[in-house]
Amino acid sequence: MGGHGHGAPYTIPKYTEFNIKGIPQLEELEKALAQKGLKDPWIRNEAWRYHPGFGTKLQRARKLFFRGLPLGLALTVATVAFDKLIGGEDHDHGHH
Fold first, then answer.
1. Can you tell me the distance from the alpha carbon of 29 to that of 17, in angstroms, rounded to the nearest whole number?
2. Does position 23 have pLDDT exceeding 70, yes or no?
3. What is the pLDDT of residue 3?
4. CB 86 within 8 A of CB 62
5. How far is the C-alpha of 30 from the C-alpha of 21, rounded, in Å?
6. What value does the mean pLDDT take over residues 25-34?
7. Contacts of 25 (CB under 8 A, 6+ apart)
8. DSSP-derived 3-state class of residue 95
9. Least C-beta-crowded within 10 Å: which of 7, 22, 82, 89?
10. Chain mean pLDDT for the chain
11. How many Å is the maximal CA-CA distance in the chain?
């Protein structure tokens, strides 16, 4: 299962690597929960979202929606150009 004896293709990080200290949004959430007498033991699982390498919500959304745009646009232009070049099928269906 490890890829022909080469080991795992990834390493699973230890839970201790994720810490909410230094992340203002999560610290505020922890304080708000504490005021209500609650505690979220899984809050550390959200720490990765605030890591600088993942960018802001807007940057992540932009990447999600526009990741394939340049390639898709280039392939569309190439397909239309190829169709025009070979004199593709006449697409004028006229009026009935």
1. 20
2. yes
3. 55
4. no
5. 10
6. 93
7. 50
8. coil
9. 89
10. 83
11. 73
Which CB contacts under 8 angstroms, 24+ apart, belong to 17-25?
18/44, 18/45, 18/47, 18/48, 19/44, 19/47, 20/44, 20/46, 20/47, 23/47, 23/50, 25/50
> How many angstroms separate the CA atoms of 87 and 96, rounded?
24
Residues 6+ apart with CB under 8 A from 2: 8, 9
What DSSP state is assigned to residue 40? Answer: -
Model pTM? 0.46
Tokens of 57: 């919500």
List, for residues 40-82, the tens digit of each pLDDT value: 988 888 888 877 777 788 888 888 889 999 999 999 999 999 9
Distances in Å between the Cα of 76 and the Cα atoms of 15, 50, 79, 80, 89 are 45, 36, 5, 6, 17
Q: What is the 3-state secondary structure (H, E, C) of 22-58?
A: CCHHHHHHHHHHHHCCCCCCCHHHHHHHHCHHHCCHH
The amino acid occupying position 24 is P
